[in-house]
C-alpha cells in the first residue's frame, strides 16, 4: 500500500450500525500521523459527506490546535484576535487598539484576503492587497492593515501556520507629501486662540483653556482629557501624565493606562499655564475629578471634543488645525529654542530615541529649559482678562 501524502486520505469504507450508515476513512494529518475518522448518515452519500467535513475540519486545525496550510487567513485572524483579547485582559494592550484592529480585520482584511489558504499567503499577494487598499482607502487605512497583517502573520509563524512573515518585504507605503503635519506659528497661535475666545460654541465646549493647556504641555488629546486635579501639583508647578481617555465598545468611556513606559511623565508647566489652572480651579470650585470635565463631572469623549474643534474652525483660515496640531506646534517651538531631540521626545512621551539613551540615561528628570521655552510664547501676554480670570 502506498504511503499517503500529507493531508491525503484513503478509501472510504461503509458499514451499518443501528440502522444508520457509517463511513470510515484513514487520512494522514500534517504532523505525518495516520488517523481514523468515522461519521454517520441516513445514506452512504450523507455519511460520506459527513466524514469529509470532519476530515477537512481536522486538517484545518491540527491535532495540537495549530494552524495548517489548509487553514484560511480568516481562521488565523480570528485566532489572533482571541490572543489579543487576552493581552487586553492582562493590561498589556489597550482596548481601543483591539477595537481598531478588529474593525480593520472585519472591514478590510477578511473581505480582501481572508479566503486565502495559509499555503497561498505570499509576499506578492499581501503586496497587491495593501497597494489596492492604499489606492482605494488611503494611506492611513493601508498602514493600519499592514500593521494588522504583520502582527497576524508573525503570530502565525510562531504557530507554524506560516514559515515566514510575508508582510515583512512588501513595498513600503508612502503617504502623500501634503500629509505632513503643520505647526502653528507664534502669531497664528495668538490669532487662533482669539477665535476660540470669541466663539460661543468654543466657550460652551470649554475649548479655549483646553487648547492652551495642550499648547503648554504637548499632550495628546486623550492624555489632556485624562488629567485630574490630583495630577497637578500647584506648589511645584508640574503635572503628572498617567492615563488617557478612550472609548471601549460596549463599555463607554474609561481612563486607560498609557501605551508605553515613556508616555508616563512629569512635565513642568509654564508660569502662564499654571496661573490659568489656578484661576480655573477657583472659578470652578473643583478640587477633584478631571481638569477638563464634561457637564456631569466625568471624562469627556475626545471624539466629541474633536468634532467641536472642527465646528469652530470651519469657515476660518484655520480649517487645517486639529488637536494634534498643538503637539506639532510644541515640538516646533522647542526645536526652535534649541532643545535637544531627547528633551522634545521626553516632553511628548515618544519612545523613539536611541537604545543607549533609553537604557543608560534617565528619562524622568524635569528640565527647566523646557518650561522656559514654552514660557516665552505666553499667548495671553499683553491681553486683557480672559476666560473668567480676575483682572
TrEMBL record:
Domain Core-binding (CB): 82-157
Record GO terms (molecular function): DNA binding
Keyword DNA-binding found: yes
Domain Tyr recombinase: 179-374
One Pfam family in the UniProt entry: Phage_integrase
Keyword DNA-binding: yes
SUPFAM superfamilies in UniProt: DNA breaking-rejoining enzymes
Keywords per UniProt: DNA integration, DNA recombination, DNA-binding
One GO term (biological process): DNA integration
InterPro entries referenced in this protein's UniProt entry, alphabetically: CB, DNA_brk_join_enz, Integrase-like_cat_sf, Integrase_catalytic, Integrase_recombinase_N, Phage_Integrase
Family: Belongs to the 'phage' integrase family.
Protein name as annotated: Site-specific integrase
Organism: Pedococcus sp. KACC 23699
Taxonomic classification: Bacteria, Bacillati, Actinomycetota, Actinomycetes, Micrococcales
Amino acid at each position: 500500500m502506498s504511503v499517503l501524502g500529507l493531508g491525503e486520505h484513503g478509501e472510504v469504507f461503509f458499514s451499518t450500525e443501528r440502522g444508520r450508515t457509517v463511513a470510515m476513512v484513514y487520512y494522514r494529518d500534517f504532523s505525518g500521523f495516520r488517523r481514523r475518522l468515522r461519521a454517520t448518515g441516513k445514506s452512504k452519500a450523507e455519511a460520506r459527506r459527513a466524514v469529509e467535513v470532519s476530515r477537512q475540519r481536522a486538517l484545518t486545525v491540527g491535532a495540537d490546535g495549530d494552524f495548517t496550510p489548509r487553514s484560511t487567513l480568516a481562521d488565523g485572524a480570528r485566532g489572533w484576535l482571541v490572543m489579543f483579547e487576552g493581552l487586553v485582559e492582562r493590561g498589556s494592550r489597550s482596548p481601543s487598539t483591539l477595537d481598531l484592529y478588529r474593525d480593520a480585520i472585519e472591514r478590510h482584511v477578511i473581505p480582501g484576503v481572508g479566503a486565502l489558504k495559509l499555503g497561498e499567503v505570499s509576499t506578492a499577494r499581501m503586496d497587491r492587497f495593501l497597494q489596492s487598499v492604499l489606492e482605494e482607502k488611503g494611506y492611513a487605512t493601508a498602514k493600519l492593515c499592514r500593521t494588522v497583517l504583520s502582527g497576524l502573520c508573525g503570530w502565525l509563524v510562531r504557530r507554524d501556520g506560516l514559515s515566514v512573515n510575508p508582510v515583512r518585504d512588501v513595498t513600503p507605503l508612502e503617504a502623500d507629501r501634503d500629509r505632513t503635519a503643520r505647526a502653528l506659528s507664534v502669531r497664528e497661535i495668538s490669532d487662533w486662540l482669539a477665535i476660540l475666545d470669541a466663539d460661543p460654541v468654543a466657550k460652551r465646549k470649554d475649548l479655549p483653556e483646553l487648547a492652551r493647556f495642550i499648547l503648554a504641555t504637548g499632550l495628546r488629546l486623550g492624555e489632556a482629557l485624562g488629567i485630574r486635579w490630583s495630577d497637578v501639583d500647584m506648589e511645584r508647578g508640574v503635572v503628572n501624565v498617567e492615563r488617557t481617555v478612550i472609548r471601549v465598545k460596549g463599555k463607554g468611556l474609561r481612563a486607560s493606562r498609557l501605551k508605553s513606559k515613556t508616555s508616563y511623565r512629569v512635565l513642568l508647566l509654564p508660569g502662564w499655564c499654571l496661573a490659568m489652572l489656578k484661576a480655573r480651579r477657583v472659578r470652578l470650585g473643583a478640587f477633584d475629578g478631571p481638569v477638563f470635565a464634561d457637564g456631569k463631572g466625568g471624562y469627556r469623549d475626545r471624539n466629541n471634543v474633536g468634532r467641536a474643534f472642527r465646528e469652530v474652525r470651519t469657515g476660518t483660515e484655520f480649517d487645517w488645525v486639529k488637536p494634534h496640531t498643538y503637539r506639532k506646534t510644541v515640538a516646533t517651538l522647542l526645536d526652535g529654542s534649541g532643545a535637544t531631540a531627547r528633551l522634545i521626545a521626553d516632553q511628548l512621551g515618544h519612545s523613539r530615541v536611541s537604545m543607549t539613551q533609553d537604557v543608560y540615561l534617565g528619562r524622568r528628570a524635569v528640565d527647566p529649559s523646557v518650561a522656559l521655552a514654552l514660557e516665552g510664547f505666553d499667548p495671553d501676554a499683553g491681553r486683557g482678562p480672559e476666560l473668567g480670570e480676575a483682572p
